[in-house]
Amino acid sequence: MIDHAHDLASVRDATERLLTALGKLDNASVTQSSRLPGWSRGHVLAHLARNADALVNVLEGRPMYVSGEARDADIERDAPRPMAAQLADVRESAARFQDVSALPADWSRTVELRNGITDSASRVPFRRWAEVELHHVDLGIGYELEDLPAAFTERETDFLAARFAGHPEVPPTRLTDGTRVWRTGREADTPGVTVTGPPADLLGWLAGRREGSALAVEGGPLPVPPPL
């Protein structure tokens, strides 16, 4: 069962870790490249702030973004700002998300995200948690996949394995960290490929953050997860 209150507390903790780390950076750091192709650190921070506002829209029953073009334009507009402005925006947009999430609501209702995707409102806090944690890693400022909370790593692996389950371009695949097991890809009585590795490397591969060189593969080549 999804505990949205627990996830909201986890979002708050992850955001504080991020803001503390950002407070040690200078303006030059904003314009430097992130680990995401074509994006500076300023792009990542602008996206995080606008994503918080977009999820407020979702919880209040409005479209997540006016359009894909408007989303991209907002990120480009906000990316060059100095660090103080970035910090304030990330902090204030995060507070708006927390404030709306604290209001009495039916957390079992269905909400609409981007591209027609729907989900339970109760899962929105976890989606925000994933944004904050993974993009903290994407900034390339010393926070790595191995630093993610273990509970988050397991749940995000659960989420991504389920997301790619039944995907026609992913072969039937068994994933394991030596203790836990997940299945993903096309349906089959038995998986064709088994992928084994540490939790951080499994998540990094599924989330498109690592190529999978640290993973052991049996039964075929390492599958290529679809873009998120």
Q: Which helices and strands occur, and which strands form pairs?
A:
Blueprint: H1 4-22, H2 27-31, H3 41-59, H4 68-78, H5 83-101, E1 110-112, E2 118-120, H6 124-138, H7 150-164, E3 173-176, E4 181-184, E5 193-196, H8 199-206, E6 216-218
Parallel strand pairs: 3-5
Antiparallel strand pairs: 1-2, 3-4, 5-6
Structure description:
The strands form two sheets. The protein has a four-stranded mixed beta sheet with strand order 4-3-5-6, covered by helices on one side. A two-stranded antiparallel ribbon has the order 1-2. Helix 1 packs parallel to helix 6 (124-138) and helix 3 (41-59) runs antiparallel to helix 6. It is 49% helix and 9% strand. It is globular. The mean pLDDT is 97. It has helices spanning 4-22, 27-31, 41-59, 68-78, 83-101, 124-138, 150-164, 199-206; strands at residues 110-112, 118-120, 173-176, 181-184, 193-196, 216-218. By secondary structure, it is α+β, with helices and mostly antiparallel strands. Strand 1 (110-112) and strand 2 (118-120) form a beta hairpin. It has eight helices and six strands; from the N terminus they run H-H-H-H-H-E-E-H-H-E-E-E-H-E.
Which descriptors would you attach to this protein?
single chain, 228 residues, four-stranded mixed β-sheet, two-stranded antiparallel sheet, 8 helices, 49% helix
Radius of gyration: 18 Å
Largest pleated sheet: 4 strands, mixed
Protein structure class: alpha+beta
Mean pLDDT across all residues, rounded? 97
Strand order of the largest sheet: 4-3-5-6
Topology pattern, helix = H, strand = E = HHHHHEEHHEEEHE
What ranges have pLDDT less than 50 throughout 5 or more consecutive residues? none
Helix content: 40-55%
* SS field, number of helical segments: 8
Approximately what portion of the residues adopt beta-strand conformation? 5-15%
Inertia-based shape: globular
Number of strands: 6
